[in-house]
Amino acid sequence: MTDANVGHLIRRQRGLARRSQMNLAHEIGISPRHLSFVELGKSKPSVALLMKIAQHLDLSLRERNDWLLAAGYAPRYPETPLTGPALSRVRASLQALLDTHDPFPGVAIDPQWNLQLSNRAARQLVSGIPEDVGGTPTNLFRMALHPAGLAGRTRNFPQWSAYLLRRLDRAVVRTQDPRLAALADEVATWPAIPERDTWRHLSSDSADDPVLSWRLELGDEELSLFSILSTFGTPMDVTLSDLSIELFFPADEQTETILRCRD
């Protein structure tokens, strides 16, 4: 990101957040003219101003580091491998959370939806799927949408895939990550996947249901699951800031009975 203009990054993120220049400037306590000069590259923002703008635009720690680098400053937030000794306690706690959630599936994923941690129930759901389908590392978008993955086992694939494709489209737009963009282009070539430029408009509406459920075949039985996504409340490390926990819960008594009997 060192060759990027930080003013361009600020302007782009402000646009994504649908914030006017005047509104954002007044909120952070500077003049609209000053913010305009920063966005145009006519004024170099201080570290304090950059971090204030980033906070009000709800940037991730990774994006804040990118802004600092683009402005010629050193990054502020460390990025520690989840497998490293510094995060061993956090990793053990996350794994304990996922294991406690068993016999219901649970995973920890990064911003590209690459699998970082999982429990036994989650691994059972993907048993029998070729390893190359999910990629290396295993990517949940690939696993869920690939015709040789879970797509063929998903009874309500049009509705469930619409939810996933909207998330993938938003992630590509927000992060401008070339890896996600390449994945989206690949997914668009798979069977039963709508045209790429329609993803943001796809609907998952299902009458009378309070939450969209994932209806998945498991052997001769059908599971109905909904999920909850959660993140760290006070991360100070890029790795933890990027991490999300997705826990799946039974949407009906039949699913709960099936999963508990497999325990």
From TrEMBL:
Pfam families: HTH_3, MLTR_LBD. Residues 10-64 form the HTH cro/C1-type domain. InterPro entries: Cro/C1-type_HTH, Lambda_DNA-bd_dom_sf, MLTR_LBD. Signal peptide: none annotated. SMART domains: HTH_XRE. It comes from the Bacteria. This is Helix-turn-helix transcriptional regulator. It comes from Streptomyces lannensis.
